[in-house]
Amino acid sequence: EKEPVTVLVTGAAGQIGYALVPMIARGVMLGPDQPVILHLLDIEPAAEALKGVKMELIDAAFPLLRGVVATTDAVEACKDVNIAVMVGGFPRKEGMERKDVMSRNVSIYKAQASALEQHAASDCKVLVVANPANTNALILKEFAPSIPEKNITCLTRLDHNRALGQISEKLFVHVVDVKNVIIWGNHSSTQYPDVNHATVTTCDGQKPVRELVADDNWLNTEFITTVQQRGAAIIKARKFSSALSAASAACDHIRDWVLGTPKGTWVSMGVYSDGSYGIQPGLIYSFPVTCEKGEWSIVQGLKIDTFSREKMDKTAQELIEEKTLAYSCLN
Ligand code: NAX
């Protein structure tokens, strides 16, 4: 039998946490033959609720689950973790300034970066889900200099999956037959969902989405805004933000990163920019990536037209502004 993998989930008493931990314990994230130990972290006001989550995990008698640590102590939570899914953060409340929200998250991510750096496994892989996801990941990277930058990522897979879903609904095809959409940039409403390289598997082979969706206008307007604003649409409908789809996307992100992407398929991940596609190095920016042997690499050589270029730069600009704001909160 395989050695158990230790997975940290922060914000584990929250909405996404509640959907995510059973998925991990069932093997959705790391595979059906991979035992796991869960470390759940939340803050004092949520300590009782967190205990309840631990009780339910025990009650579910998951065969792969080899242990649960539920704690409000970041050091205990980070001890020997192999995978860290950072869902805990400070949400924007009505009437709050952007700078105040940023400042709260900067201090959370600075502290948790140090705890991870000192106590996690040296090859720990980190996924930041909490918003502002890209910038929280950047702060984590800055304050955990001994964790390789390749190991620090943020979640844009939910946006990627939403784009696949929209194409599948539009064309009445199975979602598994749609692939290679791209989310560029920030996990925010400036993200650019790009279908220029996306294809659908049909009985006549791979066809470009641009060829199958004859309506270019839909692809260039409504499709993009629907994906960009899907989070707000879910809040409007459910009165709560996306949880099950976010949890599922977090599992997809880690699974593909650890176990690899299928041949010929890429996915979107927020990763440290190396300057690919003219994106300023040192931002955490969502790119198309393939994964092999536990490492992602940015898909190279895709043709970028002027429509795309403009949108990719706009979302990069927003990330530069967020980075400046985050740094101003450090002083
Ligand atoms: P909830 O408010 O339900 O849960 C957040 C949990 O984090 C709470 O239990 C809270 O006590 C805890 N927490 C706060 N500060 C903490 C700290 N310092 N250490 C540990 N835990 C802490 O929010 P939920 O709906 O679960 O969303 C969690 C985060 O995901 C939010 O920041 C949200 O904006 C973000 N999202 C990101 C998405 C993405 O695709 N990247 C999509 C879904 C989601 O909106």
Number of strands: 14
Gyration radius, in Å: 19 Å
Order of helices and strands: EHEHEHEHEHEHEEEEEHHHHHEEEH
User: Which hetero compounds are present in the coordinates?
Assistant: ligand NAX
Side-by-side strand order of the widest sheet: 3-2-1-4-5-6
- Average pLDDT: 97
Helix/strand class: alpha/beta
Counting DSSP H or I runs of 4 or more residues, the number of helices is: 12
What is the percent of helical residues? 40-55%
Main sheet, how many strands, which sense, barrel? Answer: 6 strands, parallel
Protein name: Malate dehydrogenase
EC number: 1.1.1.37
Catalytic activity: (S)-malate + NAD(+) = oxaloacetate + NADH + H(+)
Enzyme class: oxidoreductase
List keywords for this structure.
331 residues; alpha/beta; three-stranded antiparallel β-sheet; 20% strand; globular
Describe the structure.
The chain is α/β, with parallel strands linked by helices and 331 residues long. Helices cover 42% and strands 20% of the residues. It is built from twelve helices and 14 strands. The protein has helices spanning 15-25, 47-59, 74-78, 98-119, 133-142, 157-171, 209-212, 216-220, 222-228, 230-238, 244-259, 306-328; strands at 5-10, 36-41, 65-71, 83-86, 125-128, 152-154, 178-179, 182-184, 192-194, 199-202, 205-208, 267-272, 284-292, 295-298. Strands 3-2-1-4-5-6 form a six-stranded parallel beta sheet. Helix 1 (15-25) packs across helix 11 (244-259), helix 5 (133-142) crosses helix 12 (306-328) and helix 6 (157-171) runs antiparallel to helix 9 (222-228). The chain is globular. The mean pLDDT is 97. Ligand NAX is lined by residues 10-11, 13-17, 41-43, 46, 87-91, 108, 129-131, 133, 155, 158, 187, 231, 241-243, 246. Residues 10-11, 13-17, 41-43, 46, 87-91, 108, 129-131, 133, 155, 158, 187, 231, 241-243, 246 line the site of ligand NAX. It catalyses: (S)-malate + NAD(+) = oxaloacetate + NADH + H(+). It is an enzyme of class 1 (oxidoreductase). InterPro entries: L-lactate/malate_DH (IPR001557), Lactate/malate_DH_C (IPR022383), Lactate/malate_DH_N (IPR001236), Lactate_DH/Glyco_Ohase_4_C (IPR015955), Malate_DH_AS (IPR001252), Malate_DH_NAD-dep_euk (IPR011274), Malate_DH_type2 (IPR010945), NAD(P)-bd_dom_sf (IPR036291). Residues 156-324 form the Lactate/malate dehydrogenase C-terminal domain. One of its GO terms (molecular function) is L-malate dehydrogenase (NAD+) activity.
